[in-house]
Design brief:
The protein has 259 residues and is an alpha+beta fold. The protein is built from 7 helices and 11 strands. The longest helix has 15 residues, at 3-17. The N and C termini lie far apart (56 Å).
């Protein structure tokens, strides 16, 4: 058999054994402080997270999650904000929590014992989750990403909280980190704070969000968008409004096509 043919056969066999692995991905929207586990067009899980503070921005872009560290230790980085901190061994009170998932050099999705700020920009660039949530997420990835640590081993690893254990994913999971303060979903328009002051809250951003959600461009009224954004700017936090309340005459693309 030719090498190219053999590679194709192996790829088909791998797809048969792990048919959904290639479709599974993680999506994080920074202004929303939400992490979603997505398969195809279905959202399997949604978690509240904390992203980086302004000046410690969580990076946006395309990444992959290729390994996990259970019961991590924490060594303070050589940064001004960590000047007075000390090395913390593995354990329940570790700043990295019970597990961290690597997606870029020095950036992780990780747990935290301090949950007061979950759902707000609070970290120094990493993505923080409640320990129970990041454990659930990591367990799920261990069922789908061909890990070097079997899912059945995780309970024992967690019981030995003072011992660090590494796991590599032979099928790394794609991760998209977006910066989209305007979201159209479930018949609502949500305007989240422009936490990194990137000037992303404007009329064109609303239009693009409506188009992406399947609404007809000819039915979108710029004047109505400007009125909505004026109210959103006056709000102290996330502004939410029903599309039917905000926009008269707005139609879905398929409805417009039938007329």
């Amino acid at each position: 058999m030719k090498p190219g043919t053999l590679a194709a056969v192996l790829a088909l066999l791998l797809a048969a054994v792990h048919p959904a692995a290639a479709q599974l991905r993680i999506d994080i929207n920074i202004p929303e402080n939400r992490l979603r586990v997505v398969e195809g067009d279905s959202v399997l899980r949604t978690y509240r997270v904390s992203v980086g503070l302004p000046g410690h921005d969580t990076p946006d872009g395309e990444f992959t999650i290729g390994r996990a560290e259970w019961n991590p230790s924490w060594r303070p980085p050589d940064r001004e904000w960590a000047r007075d901190d000390r090395f913390t061994p593995p354990g329940p009170n570790n700043p990295m929590g019970r597990v961290k998932l690597f997606f870029a050099p020095y950036y992780y999705i990780h747990g935290t014992p301090d949950t007061a700020n979950i759902g707000q920009a609070a970290s120094h660039g990493c993505v923080r989750m409640r320990n129970r949530d990041v454990i659930e997420l990591a367990r799920f990835l261990h069922t789908r990403a061909q890990p070097t640590v079997a899912p059945a081993e995780i309970d024992g690893i967690l019981r030995r909280s003072g011992t660090t254990r590494w796991s590599t994913f032979r099928a790394p999971v794609p991760l998209t980190i977006r910066y989209e303060p305007i979201v159209v979903q479930g018949g609502e328009l949500r305007v989240f704070p422009d936490v990194y002051d990137r000037s992303r809250i404007h009329t064109e951003a609303v239009i693009q969000a409506l188009l992406a959600a399947g609404y007809d461009g000819a039915s979108i009224d710029r004047g109505q968008i400007r009125a909505v954004l004026q109210r959103a700017r006056a709000a102290e936090s996330t502004y939410t409004i029903q599309l039917a309340e905000a926009f008269s005459g707005l139609r879905r693309r398929e409805d417009a096509a039938r007329e």
